Amino acid sequence: MRIISYNVNGIRAAITKGFLDWLQQANPDVICLQEIKATEDQIPTQDITAAGYPYQYYFSANKKGYSGVAILSKIEPQKIVYGTGIAHMDFEGRNIRADFDSISVMSLYLPSGTNFDRLDHKFKYMDDFQNYVNALKNEIPNLVICGDYNICHEAIDIHDPIRNKTVSGFLPEERSWLDGFMKSGFIDSFRHFNKEPHNYSWWSYRAGARGNNKGWRIDYNLVSENLKDRMTRAVILPEAKHSDHCPIVVEID
After folding, report:
1. What angle do the packed helices 172-183 and 116-139 form, to 10 degrees?
2. By the number of CB atoms within 10 A of the CB, which of 41, 141, 203, 212 ranks highest?
């Protein structure tokens, strides 16, 4: 199974930039999207079906043009779960899960804490999400949580760790949470295969950051530890430019 995660920063905008042509070429079995910023009736679902993805599931935020996640699949899932059942998380459309025969795939959009009044919300979300996943693992041991975590894990994951040490996304408390989340039973699939620096998944639109590769790696495909021996490949695709993020891939046998 080839799984891609991609924060598209507006699915309609991404489509105008050639997202559907790219999707056919990339050809994942499942793609998890974040920040779709649209409701299903605003999305050209027939065009997505024509691109090879007849199974489409959208979980939009209550607020128009904000947040939202989706899963597009070539394979029909056995079950779709919208949200987590935690109200303060779900009204912003941040989690959707597709259960297949031997694996479950979640699309996650963890809040940003760049606005000070949202930082407390982000920490509460992180704590509640950890508790939710702890319980979920008992029910679903083969879990892949794909998405935009809005956190760089290590200094290697950000272009300037010194200057950004007090910026949300690289705060010690955020990094500690992500480290603990991984140690609770998940593998950072990209780092499992690639230990090299200068690999990022998001770049600011300002000051030529992408052209100069001054980025952050805040998007992850985290894979349950019991799937470790079934992972065959994990890569980042920075050449795809439909968003300020780029897609990330994991392949599982």
Report:
1. 0
2. 203
The vertex-40 CA angle with 37 and 41, nearest 5°, equals 110
Number of Cβ within a 10 Å radius of residue 189: 26
Query: 61-92: per-residue pLDDT in tens?
Result: 999 999 999 999 999 999 999 999 998 999 99
| Alpha-carbon gap, residue 33 to 227, rounded angstroms | 22
Spot the catalytic one: 99, 148, 188, 219: 148
101 belongs to the catalytic site: no
- Closest by CA to 63, choosing from 41, 88, 92, is 92
pLDDT tens for each residue of 205-229: 998 999 999 999 999 999 999 999 9
In whole angstroms, give the CA distance from residue 145 to residue 11. 20
